[in-house]
Design goal:
The chain is about 30% helix and about 30% strand. The chain is an alpha/beta fold. Helix 1 crosses helix 2.
Length: about 220
Amino acid sequence: MTIGHNVQLLPQTDQLRAMHTVVRDRDCTREDFTFYSRRIIRLLLEAASGLLPFTEKEVTTPVGVTYQGLECAVQPCAVSVIRAGEAIEGELRDVLPGVRIGKILIQRDKHTKLPRLYYQHLPADIADRHVLLLEPMLATAGSALAAIDVLLSAGVGEDHIVMVNVLSSPEGLRRLATERPAVRVVTSAVEERLNEHAFMIPGIGDFGDRFFGTVDSGVVK
């Protein structure tokens, strides 16, 4: 598919494909799944951080020469969508030490099949910040849009939101671009499609369950 202007896809290097081969394997151990997922997440976070605004800054090098550099112009915060989004937090603290992290819990209602907000706890000054929204899976985009609406209601500018995402479906990206065109997405892979059960193909299974070890890694969602 042709990805939209709001999507930054990681360079599809052989190394990245090799890491995806490990984590997509239904026989992958939890240890390997978490290790290689964290490597992918680190790449995503570095790319997402590069979308923040920067200003010029001069420093003097050890040889006494002025270097015309840059520094981040804002203090970003992050919001993780419980529970899979919490898998990103460890690497985030390495990339942005001391970053504030909010939480949102959204689950699909069993009767209406629509996303329902159960819990939110956000930094008090979130309206003044750029936000990294941590949501590893973007399938139908229903939960992602619900999380974005929580941020918008808290005063965050739509163009101040960057979603950090491991896998995206074409359908989810199209919906997000249509309904929230200013939100940017950094992802490591765009899947082929959603199947009749709204699962991504070829997919990775339930990312949160596999990362945190709450089901056998061989169980495919």
